[in-house]
Amino acid sequence: MNIQLIDPVNGQSLRESTAGLMQNDNVVYPYQNGAYRIVKDDNYTQNFGYQWNKFTYTQVDKANEFDISKVRFFAETNWDKEDISGKNVLEVGSGAGRFSQVVLDYTKANLYSVDYSNAVEANFKNNSGHGDRFKLFQASVYDLPFAPGQFDKVFCIGVLQHTPDFKQSIKSLIDQAKPNGEIVVDFYPIKGWWTKICAKYILRPFTKKWSHKKLLTVIENNID
Fold first, then answer.
1. What are the two backbone dihedrals, phi and then psi, of residue 97, each rounded to the nearest 5 degrees?
2. Contact, 16 vs 1, CB < 8 A?
């Protein structure tokens, strides 16, 4: 695999251990519930972590006997047309691991998977058992724990529209790819000013102040 890990704060080399990522003899970032934790849970993605840890298996093909994620992944990346065995693949924004499962089960690539939320715990539940081919990190797209220019493939599907700075997010992904590496991303289109009068945008200033439990209860009481 040979991916060099670095501390996104100071750029110093990190090494893996069962306790976490270490700098010299000190654990700088702990290993908890299947993932190296570069960031803490209290960030803008808390609701995603709550969602995917509660609905861990909702989008995962193997848990539901469908192939929606598989079809979407290979349709967007076209990676079923080439052998990516042994190649290093970076996934940013993995959620509960719907696409992690596809990469791990249908290719022989090495997958480094990142999410900013504690949904990494759901991903680990869904996809543990692949040994050193699968490594999980809770980290920000803007502060990734990898030295630049190492990955053969980088993908970020269904995520970019949720990040604070779209252009900086793209730049961070580009920085991770090798020369002549490939990056695959998608995002929701903005179709005009009327996009912002969609009901979810009108309600968001109110609902974002609610607890996750309250918001879920309201949704469940009003949607069949």
1. 95, 30
2. no
Q: Which of 89, 63, 83, 59 is nearest to 71 (CA)?
A: 59
**For the purposes of burial, counting CB atoms within 10 Å of the CB of 189, is it exposed (0-12), middle (13-18) or buried (19 or more)?**
exposed
Q: What is the pTM of this model?
A: 0.91
Write the pLDDT tens digit of every residue in 26-49.
999 999 999 999 998 877 788 888
Beta-carbon count within 10 A of 139 CB:
22
In a domain, 22, yes or no: no
Do residues 155 and 91 lie in contact, with contact meaning Cβ atoms separated by under 8 Å? Answer: yes
79 and 157 share one domain: yes
Rounded CA-CA distance 38/27 in Å is 11
Of 117, 139, 134, the closest CA to residue 28 belongs to 139
